[in-house]
Write a structure and sequence with these properties.
single chain, alpha/beta, globular
Length: 234
């Protein structure tokens, strides 16, 4: 795709909300916070929204993309990683889980560069057989308000090459990676040891997940790296 436009086409997963109201309308809507496409654009890519679809269509969708972002959102249904639901885990989003897991699997199979953001990182871990901690006390202090905290890169990782220094990142989450999925390595940690970034070795293609929300900040390095990798694969 980049060969036609000069700018890699980056698909970003979205979610469906019933009865969304704007103006005189109240209709079901496919939603994506504007920070995601804006960050893709600032990083040099073209953004395409990917609303939930039948999982069997994921490979065809990914085949038309140069790169893929799995966006943040609700908690992953615990049954996906063989756990019983903690009372503090949010309501299930089964349709979105199925679609985004299929997108991840298609991207991994096709070697399409992949970035998971918050829930997207957690779902990447689950897709590769990992598990999640369903609640971390103190990681969401005010409902609906982003906070910030420092993240320290793990030397020798792809993430450390992109962001070699400790940085303060915008964050909003109460769940985290527990057991790493097959092949994944931790690429950054918070001060309390929480895994803040995961990646696959470079031989597996460009695959990175971050627990924070780069679309809510000014640092474009992670997204620019995805866009660059997406342009290199076309």
């Amino acid at each position: 795709m980049a060969g036609v436009t000069g700018r890699p086409l980056i698909g970003v997963s979205t979610y469906l909300e019933a009865g969304t109201r704007w103006g005189v309308w109240e209709l079901d809507a496919a939603l994506l916070p504007a920070g995601y496409p804006r960050l893709v654009q600032r990083a040099g890519g073209l953004a395409a929204m990917l609303p939930p679809d039948a999982p069997e269509h994921a490979a065809a969708a990914v085949a038309r993309l140069d790169g893929l972002v799995i966006a943040g959102g609700p908690d992953v249904e615990p049954v996906r990683y063989g756990a019983e639901r903690d009372p503090r885990t949010g309501p299930p989003a089964a349709e979105r889980d199925a679609w985004e897991l299929a997108l991840i699997e298609a991207a991994l199979a096709a070697g399409v560069p992949l970035l998971g953001i918050c829930r997207g990182m957690q779902l990447l871990n689950v897709a590769l057989g990992g598990t999640l901690l369903q609640h971390l006390d103190g990681h969401v202090e005010v409902v609906g308000v982003f906070g910030s905290h420092p993240v320290k890169p793990v030397p020798g990782t792809r993430y450390a090459e992109l962001v070699p220094e400790e940085t303060s990142v915008p964050t909003y989450h109460h769940q985290a990676v527990d057991r790493l999925g097959t092949g994944l390595v931790a690429a950054a940690h918070a001060a309390d040891g929480t895994v803040e970034a995961v990646e696959l070795p470079s031989a597996s293609g460009w695959v990175l997940g971050v627990q924070w929300h780069p679309e809510m900040g000014e640092d474009v390095r992670v997204m620019r790296a995805l866009v660059t990798a997406a342009g290199a694969t076309t």
